[in-house]
Amino acid sequence: MKKPSFKVGDKVFAKVKGYPPWPAKIIAENGKKYNVEFYGTGETGVIKIEDLFYFKKNKQKFQRPLKRKDYLDAFDQIEEAIAEDGGDGDETPNVNDSTSDMSSVSLNSSTVSLNTSVKEKKGVKRERTASTKSEATPVKKSSRLTRSEEAKSEDVVTEEKEPSVTPAKKSPKSRVKKDKEIKVDESSNVETNESVPEELDQKPDNGNEENEPVKQETGKNVLENSAPVDVKIEIVSDQHLKYNISYGKHVKEMKSIYKERSVEPREDYIRQVLPVQLPSGIMGGIKLHADWPLKFDNEYDRAVYDESVAQNALEAKVKILSGDTSLTSDAEKFVSDIGLSAEEIKQQSLAKDVKLRTARVARLKQEAELVSLDGKIKNCLGLDKADPKEAIGYLEEMNAIDFDDVMLKKHLHIVEMVRRLRKYVGNTKEWKMTDDSLTEFSSQAEKVRSKAEDVYAKFKKVVKLPENSTSFFEGFTELVSQFRATCKEMDMSETEIFVLCAEPRSRQAFMDRLDEKETQEISTEEEAPINGAEELPAGRS
Protein backbone atom coordinates (compact mmCIF):
# COMPACT_ATOMS: atom_id res chain seq x y z
CA MET A 1 0.00 0.00 0.00
CA LYS A 2 1.37 3.40 -1.00
CA LYS A 3 2.80 5.59 1.69
CA PRO A 4 2.79 9.36 1.29
CA SER A 5 6.11 11.10 0.83
CA PHE A 6 7.04 14.51 2.14
CA LYS A 7 9.71 17.13 1.61
CA VAL A 8 11.11 20.02 3.59
CA GLY A 9 8.56 22.81 3.88
CA ASP A 10 5.46 20.63 3.66
CA LYS A 11 2.66 21.47 6.08
CA VAL A 12 1.22 18.38 7.76
CA PHE A 13 -0.58 16.88 10.72
CA ALA A 14 1.84 15.04 13.04
CA LYS A 15 0.49 12.40 15.41
CA VAL A 16 2.05 12.01 18.84
CA LYS A 17 0.88 9.51 21.41
CA GLY A 18 -1.52 11.13 23.84
CA TYR A 19 -2.24 14.19 21.71
CA PRO A 20 -4.57 15.08 18.84
CA PRO A 21 -2.95 15.27 15.39
CA TRP A 22 -1.03 18.56 15.56
CA PRO A 23 -0.29 21.05 12.73
CA ALA A 24 3.41 20.98 11.90
CA LYS A 25 6.01 21.75 9.24
CA ILE A 26 8.61 19.36 7.83
CA ILE A 27 12.03 20.87 8.53
CA ALA A 28 14.36 17.99 7.63
CA GLU A 29 14.54 14.35 6.58
CA ASN A 30 15.92 11.98 9.20
CA GLY A 31 16.35 8.57 7.62
CA LYS A 32 12.91 6.95 7.53
CA LYS A 33 11.59 9.70 9.78
CA TYR A 34 11.13 13.44 9.53
CA ASN A 35 12.11 16.30 11.78
CA VAL A 36 9.10 18.58 12.28
CA GLU A 37 8.39 21.88 13.98
CA PHE A 38 5.01 22.11 15.70
CA TYR A 39 2.92 25.21 15.11
CA GLY A 40 1.52 26.93 18.19
CA THR A 41 4.33 25.75 20.48
CA GLY A 42 7.54 26.07 18.45
CA GLU A 43 8.74 22.69 19.73
CA THR A 44 10.45 20.20 17.41
CA GLY A 45 10.36 16.45 17.19
CA VAL A 46 11.22 13.35 15.15
CA ILE A 47 8.13 11.68 13.68
CA LYS A 48 7.75 8.45 11.71
CA ILE A 49 6.25 8.75 8.24
CA GLU A 50 3.17 6.72 9.18
CA ASP A 51 2.35 9.36 11.81
CA LEU A 52 2.36 12.21 9.28
CA PHE A 53 -0.70 13.23 7.23
CA TYR A 54 -1.32 15.83 4.54
CA PHE A 55 -2.80 18.94 6.13
CA LYS A 56 -5.47 20.07 3.65
CA LYS A 57 -6.75 16.59 2.84
CA ASN A 58 -7.14 15.68 6.52
CA LYS A 59 -8.13 18.99 8.07
CA GLN A 60 -11.83 18.15 8.42
CA LYS A 61 -11.03 14.71 9.79
CA PHE A 62 -8.36 15.73 12.31
CA GLN A 63 -9.32 19.22 13.48
CA ARG A 64 -11.06 19.12 16.85
CA PRO A 65 -13.16 21.76 18.66
CA LEU A 66 -10.58 22.38 21.38
CA LYS A 67 -10.25 25.68 23.24
CA ARG A 68 -6.55 25.33 24.01
CA LYS A 69 -4.77 28.48 22.94
CA ASP A 70 -1.70 26.72 21.53
CA TYR A 71 -3.93 24.38 19.51
CA LEU A 72 -5.94 27.25 18.01
CA ASP A 73 -2.75 29.21 17.35
CA ALA A 74 -1.31 26.19 15.54
CA PHE A 75 -4.14 26.19 12.98
CA ASP A 76 -3.94 29.95 12.49
CA GLN A 77 -0.20 29.77 11.94
CA ILE A 78 -0.20 26.84 9.52
CA GLU A 79 -2.96 28.32 7.36
CA GLU A 80 -1.16 31.66 7.30
CA ALA A 81 2.06 29.88 6.33
CA ILE A 82 0.30 28.02 3.51
CA ALA A 83 -1.19 31.27 2.24
CA GLU A 84 2.25 32.90 2.25
CA ASP A 85 4.58 30.24 0.89
CA GLY A 86 2.49 27.20 -0.03
CA GLY A 87 3.94 23.82 0.87
CA ASP A 88 0.65 22.62 2.30
CA GLY A 89 1.71 18.98 2.12
CA ASP A 90 -1.45 17.89 0.27
CA GLU A 91 -1.25 15.52 -2.63
CA THR A 92 -4.17 17.38 -4.22
CA PRO A 93 -3.13 20.21 -6.54
CA ASN A 94 -3.38 23.58 -4.82
CA VAL A 95 -5.25 26.23 -6.82
CA ASN A 96 -2.68 28.72 -5.66
CA ASP A 97 0.23 26.62 -6.94
CA SER A 98 1.49 26.68 -10.48
CA THR A 99 0.45 23.04 -10.78
CA SER A 100 -3.11 24.28 -11.03
CA ASP A 101 -2.29 25.05 -14.65
CA MET A 102 -2.73 21.36 -15.25
CA SER A 103 -6.45 21.63 -14.63
CA SER A 104 -6.84 23.90 -17.64
CA VAL A 105 -5.32 21.46 -20.13
CA SER A 106 -7.90 20.07 -22.53
CA LEU A 107 -8.37 16.36 -22.83
CA ASN A 108 -8.33 14.55 -26.14
CA SER A 109 -10.94 12.18 -24.82
CA SER A 110 -13.23 11.99 -21.82
CA THR A 111 -11.62 8.80 -20.54
CA VAL A 112 -7.93 8.06 -20.16
CA SER A 113 -6.78 4.54 -19.45
CA LEU A 114 -3.88 4.17 -17.07
CA ASN A 115 -3.23 0.61 -18.20
CA THR A 116 -1.87 1.80 -21.54
CA SER A 117 0.57 4.26 -20.02
CA VAL A 118 2.13 2.37 -17.14
CA LYS A 119 4.75 0.42 -19.09
CA GLU A 120 5.66 3.43 -21.23
CA LYS A 121 6.44 5.55 -18.20
CA LYS A 122 8.31 3.06 -16.02
CA GLY A 123 11.65 4.10 -17.45
CA VAL A 124 10.94 7.75 -16.85
CA LYS A 125 9.82 7.13 -13.27
CA ARG A 126 13.01 5.26 -12.43
CA GLU A 127 15.14 8.19 -13.49
CA ARG A 128 13.37 11.14 -11.90
CA THR A 129 10.51 12.47 -9.84
CA ALA A 130 8.58 15.07 -11.74
CA SER A 131 7.72 18.47 -10.25
CA THR A 132 5.76 21.19 -11.95
CA LYS A 133 6.11 24.85 -11.16
CA SER A 134 5.75 28.10 -13.05
CA GLU A 135 8.55 30.65 -13.35
CA ALA A 136 6.76 32.91 -10.89
CA THR A 137 6.42 30.22 -8.20
CA PRO A 138 8.21 31.23 -4.94
CA VAL A 139 11.14 29.05 -3.91
CA LYS A 140 9.53 27.95 -0.65
CA LYS A 141 6.26 27.01 -2.32
CA SER A 142 5.47 23.30 -2.45
CA SER A 143 5.12 22.28 -6.06
CA ARG A 144 5.95 18.57 -6.00
CA LEU A 145 3.62 16.17 -7.77
CA THR A 146 2.89 12.74 -6.42
CA ARG A 147 3.32 9.63 -8.52
CA SER A 148 -0.39 9.54 -9.29
CA GLU A 149 -0.29 13.12 -10.54
CA GLU A 150 2.72 12.33 -12.72
CA ALA A 151 0.91 9.44 -14.31
CA LYS A 152 -2.06 11.68 -15.01
CA SER A 153 -0.08 14.62 -16.31
CA GLU A 154 2.07 12.57 -18.69
CA ASP A 155 -1.08 11.16 -20.27
CA VAL A 156 -2.88 14.42 -20.82
CA VAL A 157 -0.31 17.18 -21.16
CA THR A 158 0.68 18.16 -24.69
CA GLU A 159 4.25 19.07 -25.65
CA GLU A 160 3.35 22.76 -25.41
CA LYS A 161 2.38 22.30 -21.74
CA GLU A 162 5.42 20.15 -20.84
CA PRO A 163 6.19 21.00 -17.17
CA SER A 164 9.69 21.80 -16.00
CA VAL A 165 11.44 18.96 -14.21
CA THR A 166 13.37 19.30 -10.96
CA PRO A 167 15.79 16.44 -10.24
CA ALA A 168 14.95 14.65 -7.03
CA LYS A 169 16.15 11.70 -5.02
CA LYS A 170 15.69 8.46 -6.91
CA SER A 171 13.10 6.05 -5.58
CA PRO A 172 13.84 2.33 -5.18
CA LYS A 173 12.83 0.42 -8.30
CA SER A 174 10.78 -2.12 -6.46
CA ARG A 175 8.74 0.58 -4.77
CA VAL A 176 8.06 2.34 -8.08
CA LYS A 177 6.84 -0.89 -9.57
CA LYS A 178 4.62 -1.59 -6.60
CA ASP A 179 3.13 1.91 -6.67
CA LYS A 180 2.37 1.54 -10.38
CA GLU A 181 0.61 -1.76 -9.81
CA ILE A 182 -1.51 -0.26 -7.06
CA LYS A 183 -2.57 2.56 -9.34
CA VAL A 184 -3.62 0.18 -12.09
CA ASP A 185 -5.63 -1.96 -9.71
CA GLU A 186 -7.34 0.88 -7.93
CA SER A 187 -8.52 2.91 -10.88
CA SER A 188 -8.58 2.06 -14.56
CA ASN A 189 -10.28 5.22 -15.80
CA VAL A 190 -9.73 8.91 -15.16
CA GLU A 191 -12.47 11.25 -16.28
CA THR A 192 -10.88 14.66 -15.59
CA ASN A 193 -7.60 16.09 -14.41
CA GLU A 194 -9.04 17.18 -11.09
CA SER A 195 -10.55 13.80 -10.24
CA VAL A 196 -7.35 11.81 -10.64
CA PRO A 197 -5.65 12.64 -7.33
CA GLU A 198 -8.83 12.16 -5.31
CA GLU A 199 -9.60 8.72 -6.72
CA LEU A 200 -6.06 7.44 -6.60
CA ASP A 201 -5.24 8.80 -3.15
CA GLN A 202 -8.37 7.62 -1.40
CA LYS A 203 -7.32 4.02 -0.73
CA PRO A 204 -3.77 4.74 0.47
CA ASP A 205 -5.25 7.22 2.96
CA ASN A 206 -7.78 4.64 4.11
CA GLY A 207 -4.88 2.32 4.72
CA ASN A 208 -3.31 4.90 6.97
CA GLU A 209 -6.59 5.42 8.77
CA GLU A 210 -6.63 1.77 9.73
CA ASN A 211 -3.26 2.25 11.37
CA GLU A 212 -4.11 5.61 12.92
CA PRO A 213 -3.94 4.53 16.58
CA VAL A 214 -0.29 4.89 17.48
CA LYS A 215 1.34 1.52 17.99
CA GLN A 216 2.32 0.55 21.49
CA GLU A 217 6.02 1.27 21.79
CA THR A 218 8.76 0.79 24.29
CA GLY A 219 9.86 3.62 26.54
CA LYS A 220 12.70 4.39 24.12
CA ASN A 221 10.38 4.80 21.15
CA VAL A 222 7.99 6.95 23.15
CA LEU A 223 10.79 9.42 23.68
CA GLU A 224 11.64 9.40 19.97
CA ASN A 225 8.20 10.77 19.03
CA SER A 226 8.39 14.34 20.31
CA ALA A 227 5.25 15.93 21.75
CA PRO A 228 4.09 19.35 20.61
CA VAL A 229 5.41 20.98 23.75
CA ASP A 230 7.29 18.56 25.94
CA VAL A 231 8.30 15.06 24.91
CA LYS A 232 8.90 13.90 28.48
CA ILE A 233 6.20 11.88 30.24
CA GLU A 234 6.45 12.73 33.92
CA ILE A 235 5.10 10.10 36.29
CA VAL A 236 3.19 11.40 39.31
CA SER A 237 2.49 9.10 42.25
CA ASP A 238 -0.76 8.66 44.14
CA GLN A 239 1.06 9.86 47.27
CA HIS A 240 2.10 13.10 45.59
CA LEU A 241 -1.49 13.83 44.58
CA LYS A 242 -2.70 13.09 48.10
CA TYR A 243 -0.14 15.58 49.38
CA ASN A 244 -1.51 18.16 46.93
CA ILE A 245 -5.02 17.58 48.27
CA SER A 246 -3.83 18.06 51.86
CA TYR A 247 -1.95 21.21 50.91
CA GLY A 248 -5.00 22.60 49.10
CA LYS A 249 -7.14 22.12 52.20
CA HIS A 250 -4.44 23.77 54.33
CA VAL A 251 -4.27 26.79 52.01
CA LYS A 252 -8.05 27.22 52.01
CA GLU A 253 -7.95 27.64 55.77
CA MET A 254 -5.68 30.68 55.35
CA LYS A 255 -6.98 32.14 52.11
CA SER A 256 -6.06 35.76 52.87
CA ILE A 257 -2.43 34.81 53.54
CA TYR A 258 -1.90 32.69 50.44
CA LYS A 259 -3.77 35.12 48.19
CA GLU A 260 -0.93 37.56 48.90
CA ARG A 261 1.85 35.06 48.22
CA SER A 262 3.36 34.63 44.78
CA VAL A 263 3.20 31.22 43.12
CA GLU A 264 5.91 28.91 44.38
CA PRO A 265 8.03 26.99 41.84
CA ARG A 266 6.92 23.48 40.89
CA GLU A 267 8.09 20.87 38.41
CA ASP A 268 5.37 21.13 35.79
CA TYR A 269 5.13 19.13 32.57
CA ILE A 270 2.32 19.12 30.07
CA ARG A 271 2.58 15.33 29.97
CA GLN A 272 2.33 14.76 33.72
CA VAL A 273 0.32 11.58 34.18
CA LEU A 274 -0.98 9.37 36.94
CA PRO A 275 -0.16 5.78 35.89
CA VAL A 276 -2.89 3.15 35.89
CA GLN A 277 -2.78 -0.48 34.76
CA LEU A 278 -5.29 -1.36 32.06
CA PRO A 279 -7.02 -4.76 31.76
CA SER A 280 -4.53 -5.63 29.01
CA GLY A 281 -1.68 -5.22 31.48
CA ILE A 282 -0.35 -2.12 29.70
CA MET A 283 0.35 0.90 31.87
CA GLY A 284 -1.62 3.92 30.69
CA GLY A 285 -1.60 7.42 32.12
CA ILE A 286 -4.30 9.86 33.25
CA LYS A 287 -3.29 13.33 32.11
CA LEU A 288 -3.30 15.94 34.84
CA HIS A 289 -3.34 19.17 32.84
CA ALA A 290 -5.99 19.96 30.23
CA ASP A 291 -4.74 23.49 29.56
CA TRP A 292 -1.19 24.64 28.98
CA PRO A 293 0.78 26.62 29.98
CA LEU A 294 -0.31 26.93 33.59
CA LYS A 295 -0.67 30.53 34.74
CA PHE A 296 -1.84 31.69 38.16
CA ASP A 297 -1.75 35.01 39.98
CA ASN A 298 -1.06 33.71 43.48
CA GLU A 299 -0.24 30.62 45.51
CA TYR A 300 -3.83 30.19 46.68
CA ASP A 301 -5.22 29.82 43.15
CA ARG A 302 -2.48 27.39 42.18
CA ALA A 303 -2.94 25.25 45.31
CA VAL A 304 -6.71 25.03 44.74
CA TYR A 305 -6.08 24.03 41.11
CA ASP A 306 -3.62 21.32 42.18
CA GLU A 307 -6.13 19.98 44.70
CA SER A 308 -8.87 19.77 42.08
CA VAL A 309 -6.57 18.10 39.54
CA ALA A 310 -5.43 15.55 42.12
CA GLN A 311 -8.97 14.67 43.17
CA ASN A 312 -10.12 14.24 39.56
CA ALA A 313 -7.14 12.07 38.65
CA LEU A 314 -7.48 9.79 41.66
CA GLU A 315 -11.24 9.41 41.07
CA ALA A 316 -10.61 8.58 37.41
CA LYS A 317 -8.08 5.93 38.41
CA VAL A 318 -10.60 4.28 40.73
CA LYS A 319 -13.15 4.17 37.90
CA ILE A 320 -10.69 2.65 35.45
CA LEU A 321 -9.58 0.00 37.92
CA SER A 322 -13.23 -0.87 38.61
CA GLY A 323 -13.84 -1.53 34.90
CA ASP A 324 -15.02 1.84 33.55
CA THR A 325 -12.69 2.38 30.58
CA SER A 326 -14.63 5.20 28.89
CA LEU A 327 -11.88 7.68 29.77
CA THR A 328 -9.16 5.58 28.16
CA SER A 329 -10.47 6.28 24.66
CA ASP A 330 -10.15 10.07 25.09
CA ALA A 331 -6.69 11.08 23.85
CA GLU A 332 -7.15 14.52 25.40
CA LYS A 333 -7.30 13.00 28.87
CA PHE A 334 -5.48 9.70 28.63
CA VAL A 335 -2.17 8.31 27.35
CA SER A 336 -2.88 4.78 26.17
CA ASP A 337 0.64 3.50 26.77
CA ILE A 338 3.31 5.34 28.74
CA GLY A 339 5.94 2.84 27.69
CA LEU A 340 6.83 1.65 31.19
CA SER A 341 6.02 -1.43 33.20
CA ALA A 342 4.47 -1.32 36.67
CA GLU A 343 7.82 -2.26 38.20
CA GLU A 344 9.65 0.45 36.26
CA ILE A 345 7.12 3.04 37.43
CA LYS A 346 7.55 1.87 41.02
CA GLN A 347 11.33 2.15 40.77
CA GLN A 348 11.08 5.56 39.12
CA SER A 349 8.84 6.91 41.89
CA LEU A 350 11.12 5.43 44.54
CA ALA A 351 14.17 7.00 42.92
CA LYS A 352 12.43 10.37 42.86
CA ASP A 353 11.57 10.13 46.56
CA VAL A 354 15.13 9.14 47.40
CA LYS A 355 16.48 12.05 45.37
CA LEU A 356 14.28 14.57 47.18
CA ARG A 357 15.16 13.21 50.61
CA THR A 358 18.85 13.07 49.73
CA ALA A 359 18.74 16.72 48.67
CA ARG A 360 17.02 17.65 51.92
CA VAL A 361 19.59 15.78 54.00
CA ALA A 362 22.44 17.38 52.03
CA ARG A 363 21.01 20.81 52.71
CA LEU A 364 20.70 20.10 56.44
CA LYS A 365 24.33 18.91 56.45
CA GLN A 366 25.40 22.23 54.92
CA GLU A 367 23.46 24.04 57.61
CA ALA A 368 25.14 21.92 60.28
CA GLU A 369 28.54 22.75 58.78
CA LEU A 370 27.66 26.44 58.89
CA VAL A 371 26.85 26.19 62.61
CA SER A 372 30.01 24.16 63.22
CA LEU A 373 32.20 26.79 61.53
CA ASP A 374 30.59 29.48 63.66
CA GLY A 375 31.73 27.63 66.79
CA LYS A 376 35.24 26.99 65.42
CA ILE A 377 35.75 30.65 64.53
CA LYS A 378 34.71 31.75 68.00
CA ASN A 379 37.14 29.26 69.56
CA CYS A 380 39.96 30.58 67.37
CA LEU A 381 39.41 34.20 68.39
CA GLY A 382 39.00 34.06 72.16
CA LEU A 383 39.83 36.77 74.69
CA ASP A 384 42.74 34.83 76.19
CA LYS A 385 44.42 33.87 72.93
CA ALA A 386 43.72 33.98 69.20
CA ASP A 387 44.74 32.15 66.02
CA PRO A 388 43.65 34.50 63.22
CA LYS A 389 45.22 32.33 60.49
CA GLU A 390 42.96 29.41 61.41
CA ALA A 391 39.95 31.74 61.65
CA ILE A 392 40.67 33.04 58.13
CA GLY A 393 40.51 29.47 56.82
CA TYR A 394 37.18 28.85 58.53
CA LEU A 395 35.75 32.10 57.15
CA GLU A 396 36.77 31.01 53.64
CA GLU A 397 35.00 27.68 54.18
CA MET A 398 31.91 29.50 55.43
CA ASN A 399 31.87 31.73 52.37
CA ALA A 400 32.03 28.66 50.12
CA ILE A 401 28.88 27.12 51.62
CA ASP A 402 25.72 27.44 49.53
CA PHE A 403 23.61 28.76 52.41
CA ASP A 404 20.18 30.36 52.09
CA ASP A 405 18.11 32.87 54.05
CA VAL A 406 16.24 30.19 56.02
CA MET A 407 19.52 28.84 57.42
CA LEU A 408 20.48 32.33 58.55
CA LYS A 409 17.05 33.04 60.07
CA LYS A 410 17.31 29.84 62.09
CA HIS A 411 20.77 30.88 63.34
CA LEU A 412 20.85 34.62 63.91
CA HIS A 413 24.00 34.22 66.04
CA ILE A 414 26.03 33.38 62.91
CA VAL A 415 25.15 36.70 61.28
CA GLU A 416 25.88 38.54 64.53
CA MET A 417 29.32 36.91 64.83
CA VAL A 418 30.37 37.73 61.26
CA ARG A 419 29.06 41.27 61.66
CA ARG A 420 31.33 41.84 64.70
CA LEU A 421 34.34 40.29 62.98
CA ARG A 422 34.30 43.09 60.41
CA LYS A 423 35.82 45.25 63.16
CA TYR A 424 38.01 42.61 64.78
CA VAL A 425 41.31 43.85 66.33
CA GLY A 426 41.90 41.24 69.03
CA ASN A 427 42.54 41.67 72.74
CA THR A 428 46.05 43.02 72.20
CA LYS A 429 45.94 45.30 75.24
CA GLU A 430 45.76 42.27 77.56
CA TRP A 431 48.23 40.16 75.61
CA LYS A 432 51.93 40.57 76.17
CA MET A 433 53.24 40.66 72.60
CA THR A 434 56.53 41.76 71.10
CA ASP A 435 56.51 44.40 68.42
CA ASP A 436 57.11 41.80 65.73
CA SER A 437 54.31 39.58 67.04
CA LEU A 438 51.96 42.55 67.24
CA THR A 439 52.77 43.57 63.66
CA GLU A 440 52.13 40.06 62.39
CA PHE A 441 48.92 39.75 64.40
CA SER A 442 47.65 43.11 63.13
CA SER A 443 48.24 41.95 59.56
CA GLN A 444 46.31 38.73 60.18
CA ALA A 445 43.52 40.60 61.97
CA GLU A 446 43.12 42.80 58.92
CA LYS A 447 42.66 39.68 56.79
CA VAL A 448 40.04 38.43 59.25
CA ARG A 449 38.12 41.70 58.84
CA SER A 450 38.39 41.44 55.05
CA LYS A 451 37.12 37.84 54.96
CA ALA A 452 34.30 38.75 57.33
CA GLU A 453 33.27 41.55 54.96
CA ASP A 454 33.15 39.02 52.12
CA VAL A 455 30.90 36.67 54.08
CA TYR A 456 28.68 39.51 55.25
CA ALA A 457 28.33 40.75 51.68
CA LYS A 458 27.13 37.27 50.71
CA PHE A 459 24.58 37.42 53.55
CA LYS A 460 23.23 40.61 52.01
CA LYS A 461 22.89 38.96 48.60
CA VAL A 462 21.07 35.94 49.99
CA VAL A 463 18.58 37.74 52.24
CA LYS A 464 15.77 39.81 50.74
CA LEU A 465 15.03 42.66 53.14
CA PRO A 466 11.79 44.60 53.69
CA GLU A 467 11.62 47.79 51.62
CA ASN A 468 11.62 50.09 54.66
CA SER A 469 14.85 48.67 56.13
CA THR A 470 17.46 51.30 57.02
CA SER A 471 20.30 48.80 57.46
CA PHE A 472 20.91 45.16 56.67
CA PHE A 473 21.16 43.94 60.25
CA GLU A 474 18.08 45.88 61.35
CA GLY A 475 16.03 44.51 58.46
CA PHE A 476 17.35 41.00 59.02
CA THR A 477 16.50 40.95 62.73
CA GLU A 478 12.97 42.02 61.78
CA LEU A 479 12.72 39.06 59.40
CA VAL A 480 13.99 36.73 62.12
CA SER A 481 11.30 38.00 64.50
CA GLN A 482 8.61 37.34 61.88
CA PHE A 483 10.08 33.89 61.19
CA ARG A 484 9.95 32.90 64.86
CA ALA A 485 6.44 34.31 65.28
CA THR A 486 5.20 32.25 62.33
CA CYS A 487 6.74 29.07 63.73
CA LYS A 488 5.01 29.77 67.02
CA GLU A 489 1.64 30.42 65.33
CA MET A 490 1.96 27.10 63.52
CA ASP A 491 2.77 25.39 66.82
CA MET A 492 5.97 23.92 65.41
CA SER A 493 8.15 21.89 67.74
CA GLU A 494 11.89 22.47 68.12
CA THR A 495 12.50 19.35 66.06
CA GLU A 496 10.28 20.60 63.23
CA ILE A 497 12.08 23.94 63.23
CA PHE A 498 15.45 22.18 63.32
CA VAL A 499 14.72 20.21 60.11
CA LEU A 500 12.98 23.12 58.38
CA CYS A 501 14.38 23.68 54.88
CA ALA A 502 12.03 26.43 53.69
CA GLU A 503 9.78 29.21 54.97
CA PRO A 504 7.33 27.80 57.56
CA ARG A 505 4.21 28.58 55.49
CA SER A 506 5.71 27.57 52.16
CA ARG A 507 4.47 24.67 50.07
CA GLN A 508 7.86 22.99 50.26
CA ALA A 509 7.85 23.09 54.07
CA PHE A 510 4.33 21.66 54.14
CA MET A 511 5.29 18.83 51.77
CA ASP A 512 8.45 18.12 53.77
CA ARG A 513 6.41 17.80 56.96
CA LEU A 514 4.00 15.38 55.29
CA ASP A 515 6.92 13.33 53.99
CA GLU A 516 8.60 13.24 57.39
CA LYS A 517 5.34 12.13 58.98
CA GLU A 518 4.86 9.43 56.34
CA THR A 519 8.40 8.18 56.87
CA GLN A 520 7.91 8.00 60.62
CA GLU A 521 4.63 6.09 60.23
CA ILE A 522 6.28 3.56 57.94
CA SER A 523 9.13 3.10 60.41
CA THR A 524 6.63 2.61 63.24
CA GLU A 525 4.69 0.00 61.24
CA GLU A 526 7.89 -1.92 60.48
CA GLU A 527 8.89 -1.97 64.14
CA ALA A 528 5.41 -2.79 65.51
CA PRO A 529 5.44 -6.57 64.87
CA ILE A 530 8.78 -6.95 66.64
CA ASN A 531 7.78 -4.90 69.65
CA GLY A 532 4.35 -6.51 69.72
CA ALA A 533 5.84 -10.00 69.75
CA GLU A 534 8.01 -9.11 72.71
CA GLU A 535 5.05 -7.78 74.68
CA LEU A 536 2.68 -10.72 74.09
CA PRO A 537 1.99 -12.92 77.14
CA ALA A 538 3.67 -16.30 76.98
CA GLY A 539 0.33 -18.08 76.69
CA ARG A 540 -0.56 -16.13 73.53
CA SER A 541 2.77 -16.11 71.76
TrEMBL record:
SUPFAM superfamilies with a match to the protein in the record: HIV integrase-binding domain, Tudor/PWWP/MBT
The record's subcellular location field reads: Nucleus
Ranges of Basic and acidic residues composition bias in the record: 118-130, 146-163, 200-218
Q: Where is the composition biased (Low complexity)?
A: 94-117
Protein family membership: Belongs to the HDGF family.
Tell me the segments the record calls region Disordered: 82-223, 512-541
InterPro entries on file: HIVI-bd_sf, LEDGF_IBD, PWWP_dom, TFIIS/LEDGF_dom_sf
Gene Ontology CC annotations of this record: nucleus
What are the UniProt keywords, alphabetically? Answer: Coiled coil, Nucleus
At the top level, the lineage of the source is Eukaryota
Name of the protein in question:
PWWP domain-containing protein
Q: Where is the composition biased (Acidic residues)?
A: 82-91
Give any Pfam family that matches: LEDGF
What residues does the PWWP domain cover? 8-58
